[in-house]
Amino acid sequence: MSAALEVMMLAPMVIAMRVPNVMYEMATPWHASGGRRGGEGEKAVIEKTAVMVESFGVVHAEMLNTWSEMATSAMMGELPNAAKVSRSIQDISDAGLAPVAKRVRANYTRLRNRAA
Predict the structure, then answer these.
(1) How many domains does the chain have?
(2) Which of 113, 111, 109, 116 is nearest to 21 (CA)?
(3) Whole-prediction pTM value?
(4) Is residue 59 within 8 Å of residue 92, measured between CB atoms?
C-alpha cells in the first residue's frame, strides 16, 4: 500500500480514537494523566513536531539526489524528459510521506490495542 493511501485511510481513524482522550484531558487537566505530564495531547504535539522535522530532512535529501541526477544528465548532454521529471516529483513526495505513514500506522496500532 502506498504511503499516501495509508495516511488517507488511517489518519481519520487515529483522530477519531485520539479526540476523546484529548477532550478528557482538556476537561480534567488535574486528573487526565494521573497527575503527571505526558498525556495524549502532549504526545500528539511532540509526535507531529518530530515527524515534520524527519519528513523535511528526507525530502531535502531526496531533492538533492534528484538535482544531482538531473545535473549529471545535463552535463552528459541528455535532455530532461517528462517521465523522468514526473518520477522524480513522485519520489520526493513518497519520501516525505514515508515518515508520516510510519507514525500514523504506529499510532493506529497503539490506540487500537488500548481500546481493546
Answers:
(1) 1
(2) 111
(3) 0.78
(4) yes
